[in-house]
Write a structure and sequence with these properties.
By secondary structure, the chain is an all-alpha fold. It has one domain. The chain is built from 5 helices and no strands. The N and C termini lie close together (10 Å). 22% of the residues are buried.
């Protein structure tokens, strides 16, 4: 089992499961969005929580450069928090039927999916 898989299992067992993992990642993304909002003219409505629009669709508020800035910040936060690195903007993300970058919730769910793929299948 790699360090990342071990970390996810330990986190899951010691903190009550994936619901807390989901909440932790959601809050991590919201914190990064709030920080990015300080630089934006049109801000991410973080008060909407998981439903806050990010990029694309009819309600997306981020430019492509702002999206990249958010993605890099989230990747760094994931690495700091979980001692592992994820690449969020890659071919896999772009080939999803529904973009993982539409809302804070869809980004959270995409990150959980990536974490589950790397976790052991015991």
């Amino acid at each position: 089992m790699n360090t990342f898989g071990k970390l996810i299992v330990e986190y899951s067992l010691t903190n009550g499961g994936m619901k807390l993992m989901h909440e932790k990642i959601l809050n991590l993304i919201i914190a990064q969005a709030e920080e990015l909002n300080e630089q934006l003219e049109i801000i991410i409505p973080v008060e909407l929580g998981a439903d806050a629009p990010l990029f694309g669709g009819k309600t997306g508020v981020l430019s492509s450069i702002s999206l990249v800035t958010l993605i890099v910040a989230v990747e760094q936060s994931i690495e700091d928090e979980f001692e592992t690195s994820l690449i969020l903007a890659d071919e896999k993300a772009m080939s999803q039927k529904n973009s993982p970058f539409l809302t804070i919730g869809s980004l959270t769910n995409y990150i959980i999916m990536l974490l589950n793929e790397d976790a052991p299948n015991d």
